[in-house]
Amino acid sequence: MLEIRDLSLSVSIEGQRVEAISGVSLQLKQGRVLGLVGESGCGKSLTSQAVLRLGEHQGVGKTGGDILLDGQSLFAMPDETLRKMRGGRISMIFQEPMTALNPVFSIGSQITEVIRLHLDMSPQHATERAIELLADVGMQDAEQILKQYPDALSGGMRQRVLIAMAMAADPDYIIADEPTTALDVSVQKRIIALLLNLQKKRNLGLLLVTHDFGLVAELCDDVAVMYAGQIVESGPVADIFDHPAHPYTRALMGCRPEVSEAGQGLPVIAGQVPPPGRWPIGCHFAERCPLAQGDCVQPVVEDAWRCREHTARCLHVNTAEAVNVI
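Given the sequence above, the corresponding structure tokens read:
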């Protein structure tokens, strides 16, 4: 199991260290898909990148908690073990395929580099493996594609290349950071179908970072809703879709285009996500919440409301509705 346990991260803003992630806990098991949902600026990408310790060179620092892979701390790993874990046990699919691929190296050189690093293959066997991987992600004429450079491929093809690279060393877990955001709608559907097929076929644990609840409904087994650096609600997808408990979750779900009436403007959540260093005291959502009361300015524990595996960081859950998940 891959577990994020009470993780807190800080970043530097205007010369001062401020907390950007506060006490986040998540569990990802092989064979299951976990969705991490929230508005832009909530800390989703920062959390997901912390699993591979990718933000450290940009000044992201751990101030509390841990990330465990089969019980072993990733932060206590020696550098050599950490390099083997990245792309080996855990892979990542980034949001923007053009910036994730190096424009001055061919597709073949980039895929075979990953293969040889983790699987210790000869150049010939690595090339054969790369052709198999491109075929697995639905790319025809793989031998020719290996000779191409990223700018010669479409956005959908580049994203398939990233998925092939992520699968190169047969990882146990994949982190997909909004993998379809930069793609056309028709291409998005094909990429999502491909990801779901690979996840089931290889029994992967998949962490899907997204702002799209429709995507969560289609792909995920479990979901965690993030707001201003905190997990405000988590649980099985069916429970949260049928009975969302936290006001923020309800507001996000109410903004989906498919639930709006024809001819009417899309609902919006008033206000903006507060940046790190400007979080309200107590509930981070209180300033935008229609249910906020005086006690909301006091610290709120993560499982202030709990029903089996469904938890919400809220003191004023509508119990009459939310308790129906039982």
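Residues 322-326 have pLDDT under 50 and may be disordered. Try to locate this feature in the token string yourself.
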